């Protein structure tokens, strides 16, 4: 009973059984009370009739056939006896009661009592020294009551069966699209494209279908990106490895000098190490368990530290690093933010003509950190691709720098965007809402 369909059907059955029990219980109580009230009313009506007969005749004129109790589908005679002033029965519907004290113990004028071990309903009235008592056994009422309950129970059972069949068909119709959706998801292959499932017609299920189709599209894109990523990584790693292998063989065969060959092998080895380091860095950033805790950071101090660290590289490229002198303290993971700043500065130094400028600050709503250069900037047709993995500009190295920067920003719940710099080149801005 683990499926939704089975749970709904069992729940429906349980609700219907409880409904039937409660309905029959209430109906039984109400019906029995109505039957009792109707019987008492019939007895009182026939009692008046019996008194009229006795007042117009003698005790022998009263017969059981004169006292008919009429119900909707049943009719039978009331029973009676007449007691004189001596307390003896002088006339009765059953001759064996005559001449004896009444066997029915009366405590009230009207009510119920026992007669020869059987429960009866009775009514009584006094007239001219006599007491007239009409009664009827309750087993006759119970027989009518049982017949009525059987009829009601049968009708409720039939209606419940019809409702259960209707509910079963509705549940089957509702859950069938879910089952088809489960089968489609189970057979889904990212290589085959977006998940294809027809709409069910129910708003909630259609929303689920749309969500799964959208998710399958994202999975397919991620799958395609993973394939491209592996192909690109394989190509990028293969190139320096082939150079290392080629020059090692060239040195062995004495085709090139040992000095020249070792220099190229060393350069390609460093390139390979940088690429592997970047890949490990990117993988680490995609693991949420490795994210650092936020601390209070002085942005001015961090910018000065990063500028000092890269000053030699900047001088090598003929670039000067400038910054704004503004005191700004923010909450952020220090190592990740410093790594982001270093990557942006290195990228800017490679493309700058003479200046790299760092600006930072905060408002009541957000803080920002911007790195810009006076280079040529990014062509409009390439601006959407600069954050993709392995997209390299003319002076790029691994093609992972800006991709890592964006991933770091996302891990900090910040936004990294490209803008055109007033210096003429590129401007990369990290922004985060407080």
Automatic annotation (TrEMBL):
GO terms for cellular component: membrane. It is found in: Membrane. Its EC number is 2.7.13.3. SMART domains: HATPase_c, HisKA. Keywords: ATP-binding, Kinase, Membrane, Nucleotide-binding, Phosphoprotein, Transferase, Transmembrane, Transmembrane helix, Two-component regulatory system. It is an enzyme of class 2 (transferase). GO terms for molecular function: ATP binding; phosphorelay sensor kinase activity. Residues 232-434 form the Histidine kinase domain. This is histidine kinase. It comes from Paenibacillus roseus.
